[in-house]
Amino acid sequence: MKLQMKRYVSFFLLASSACLPLAAKAQDSAPIKADPEAARDKISMCIGCHGLPGYKASFPEVYHVPMIAGQGAAYIEAALKEYASGARTFPTMQAIAQSLSEQDMADIAAYYAAIKP
């Protein structure tokens, strides 16, 4: 009886561990729900450049910083992902985007999209 119980326990543990990656994958593929209110605690790094009309960054070159208030959420989120991946290159934006989660990006994009310029 003990041997049979050990087999059941072993089978159960093996089967359970095989399901863990599937559960993690299901959570990863769940759509992200953007929360513009949650972005209020995340935008301090954006305001310093994108909140100043006519602001130009001077590193690594003089660059006109675009206003992002009122820009489409999909565009902002795509731009952040491109900076994070290196598809867009600007050192400051790359560093900031790489520090954000996908949830952060969605929240920030929704926040700025809701602002009327």
Automatic annotation (TrEMBL):
Keywords: Electron transport, Heme, Iron, Metal-binding, Signal, Transport. Residues 24-116 form the Cytochrome c domain. It holds the Pfam family Cytochrom_C. Residues 1-26 form the signal peptide. It comes from the Bacteria. This is C-type cytochrome. InterPro entries: Cyt_c-like_dom, Cyt_c-like_dom_sf, Cytochrome_c_Oxidase_Subunit. PROSITE patterns: CYTC (PS51007), PROKAR_LIPOPROTEIN (PS51257).
